[in-house]
Amino acid sequence: MLDTLGTLIEAYEVEHYSIPNCSGSDVLAYLMEEHGLGFSDLPEIGTSETMESILNNDLALTLSQIQYLAQRFKVQAQVFLD
Questions:
Q1: What CATH number is attached to the domain comprising 44?
Q2: pTM greater than 0.70
Q3: Are the beta carbons of 61 and 25 closer than 8 angstroms?
């Protein structure tokens, strides 16, 4: 009975609460907005020009940037991987 209930809950969540595919830059933009951060608040990522390039998908996040962001926002590093 629990197996059936779990299957039904999963199907419902997939249909009604699906998680959209997002790029690492989309996740970063969302987290920056949620925390009220600007380019200058994340100097470890790079200059304002670097941040703008990342957010415009012109430049990919590096491994060290991803590791820093994962620690900073207390999320899994995988959320920043495309």
A1: 1.10.260.40
A2: yes
A3: yes
